[in-house]
Design goal:
The complex is a heterodimer of chains A (about 625) and B (about 210). Chain A is α+β, with helices and mostly antiparallel strands. Chain A contains 14 helices and 18 strands. Chain A has helices at about 1-20, 60-65, 160-200, 205-225, 235-260, 265-280, 290-315, 320-350, 360-445, 450-470, 480-495, 515-535, 570-580, 610-624, and strands at about 30, 35-40, 55, 60, 70-80, 90, 95, 100-105, 105-110, 125-130, 135-145, 155, 155-160, 500, 540-545, 550-560, 585-590, 595-605. In chain A, the strands form four sheets. Chain A has a six-stranded antiparallel β-sheet, with no helix packed on it. In chain A, helix 3 (about 160-200) runs antiparallel to helix 4 and helix 5 packs parallel to helix 7 (about 290-315). Mean pLDDT of chain A is about 85; it is low at about 1-10, about 20-25 and about 610-624. Chain B has two domains: about 1-120, Response regulator (Rossmann fold); about 125-210, Arc Repressor Mutant, subunit A. Chain B contains ten helices and seven strands. Chain B has helices at about 10-25, 35-40, 60-70, 85-95, 110-120, 125-145, 150, 155-165, 170-180, 180-210, and strands at about 1-5, 25-35, 50-55, 55, 60, 75-80, 100-105. Chain B is globular, with a radius of gyration of 17 Å. Residues about 145-150 of chain B have low confidence and may be disordered. Classes of the chains: A alpha+beta (about 625), B alpha/beta (about 210). The interface between A and B is medium-sized, with 19 and 19 residues.
Chain lengths: ~625, ~210
Amino acid sequence: MRPARWVSSSAAFAFLLALATGAAAAPPVVALDAARFLKSDSAEPPPDSAPWEAQALPDNWKKSRPKASGYGWYRLAFDLPAKTDAPYAIYTPWMRTIGAVYVNGTEIGRTGAFGAPQLSPYPQVFVIPPKLLRAGENTLHVRLFVGDGWRGALAPLTVGEDTPVRRVYDRRYFVQITGAQLSSALAAALGIFMLMVWFRRRNESLYAYFGAGALGWAAMNALYLVQDPLLNRDCLEFLLAACNGASTVCLSLFALRYAGLRWPRVEKALWAWAALQVALVFVESDAAWMTLLEKVLDYSRLAVMAAWLVLLARASGKRPALERALVLIAVAFFGGTVIRDIIAGEMLGELDSTYQPYRAIPMCIAIGWALVDRFVHSLNESERLNAELERRVAEKHAELEANYRRMNELEGQRAVAAERQRIMSDMHDGVGGHLISTLSLVEQGDLTAAEVAAALRECLDDLRLTIDSLEPTENDLLPVLGNLRYRLDERLKRQGIELDWRITDVPKLANMTPRNVLHVLRILQEAFTNVLKHAHAANVEVETGVDAAGVAVYIRVRDDGRGFEGDRAGHGFANMRRRAQVVGGTLAIQSSPAGTTVSLLLPLPPIPHSGDSRAYSRDTAQAA
Amino acid sequence: MATVMVVEDDPAFLKRFCGIIATDPDLELFAAVPDCASARQALASAAPDVLLTDLGLPDGSGIEIIREASRRFPGTDTVVITVFGDEEHVLAAIEAGATGYILKDSIPAQFVGLIKELRAGGSPISPVIARQLLKRFKSASDAGSARPAEDAGLSARESEVLSLIAKGFSFGEIARLLGVSKHTVTTHVKKIYQKLAVHSRGEAVYEAGKMGLI
């Protein structure tokens, strides 16, 4: 299937070319390829009696009279059946380097100024005024000037009525000039595009080499069309050699990269080779070594071209089918047209290749496609990777969430276990102990009903204290104190003890866990129990505030009772001190016959969070 | 003279409450019943001045009795009987319309004192409950757009009273601190209770609307 497609597409291309060149132009157009030649500096057509020699057209001076330069004359003849009034024209695809056309001895036009050699790559058309024509044989003379070192040549002439000749000329013009310009523009655009891609992706030299190669080729192609005398021959040849060399090397390096190869030595050698070709432009020498060198370079050019074409073809084997097909077609077309041009040039003496300007078009399409394919493929790949990445992130996310949930559960279980442990120990310390001692007293039968009730009430109070300690305090001590007062109020009232409640706002404390809250409550309850049971006080004062240093909150319970001796409440105070220590505070007890003061100092968080809380504690300290 | 009804499934306590009421000349027993069904029966035609109810009854929750009674008889003071006066039970009862709570082990004097305080227009409240109420109203106002806290329920004076209660100050002390009568303080508290009940009814309506029930 692939070869079939290849055949059909190249056949189609050949067919189109045939159409365009008008190879099968209809009469009354006559192609004249049999001429006579006379090397003569004469300014007028030499007489028929001069020593004319037969010469077939095209006539390539390089072959027919090597190293010749100066003026030469061609004489051709064509027949007209009758005198005509219609305008006639003469067309030739090329005339090198300067030519003038004479009809029956009268000049009808020239391509430039004689003596100042310049190269016109354009096809030429000359109108023949009807009055110059006559029935029967008409004579055409072409005066040709070939500058020293220039390649002189004359293509066959086509004569006929103006319209059909002009049609042939137009077709030729399209193929030789317009098409070549379009082709150059296409290659240049692709080259620039590839260079832009490379500019953003510097590590892919593949794009740079192809871009530069295509640009070089486009420039070379455009230079062939230059006929402006602004560029002298040396300059033109230099530019051509430079573009050609750079383009060939770049395309070779591209082929290497395309094949995934890096041959640094070969690559350096290629650049040196190109530089040598450019340098040789400036060498004017007819020496034998020079001729040999030029020959060698000519063959090396072919060898390099063949090498990179083969490289491309082989490398395309690993690529997708469509790309492979395109590359193979392009390689075949490129190589095929080169071979055809060599044959045409060497054997048929053609000077110009019709295919040359189009040689790179399939190559541009194939490589353009390959690089776009590569580009799209990496885009797709990155999208796929992105999707993959997202999927994996989602997976990890779910995993983390599950982990977090599990940890939360564990944490919850741990907290529940700790809380259970705490409540157990509180029950053991508090209500459990109370109940056991009450029970043993009841069993011994030593208690009155009222005493049992009082003992049980103590149990209940303790239970309530435990419940109060579970109230979330958010490190705020005041509601805890408030509730303690609420619980005790009734009993104080019954004993006729006046309570002075001097509670002011205090900064939040650190570390007021339920356990610590319970310790604080037990300390205070113990202090109140002492007041209620032993002190015989009339007034109790409870006060809160921040100490002078601003590092602790104090809670002070002061009564005006009779005080106590050191040994009496020893066990109770020891317990209170122990609890104070556990919550990180200190307990101070002063007792005299005039009353007892119990002060609990609780530390504030070590570093205030902001200036605000610092100011707050100072204010409160002053207020206290 | 105030009529008192007691709903309590523990016969010993029921007997104790009845005894306290019988011995006080200012109190009269309206009914003493052990469950929801008989409570509803007793409340079918007439209402007591004070209704005391336990929460865990054999055929339902005392909360239901409080809700029904406070809706039908706005003049009745409903009181929840609780062992510990813990916030969860008390707040639920207040939201249902209760105007106070009483500890189960209260001595007769406390018990009678509370009933009289209620009849005088006051409501007993502990610092922990006060603190919970403050929190409750604060979160309601935080949730409801940018309205000032007062709009959400409490007036500035009411929240002042609550925060002082939360710090353990007695009604008398608060009255002195604020320069008002003790009676004013107690009526503030009662009003706060009512607001919480209204507030929670509103919330219930809102919730019902959200669930598509009304």
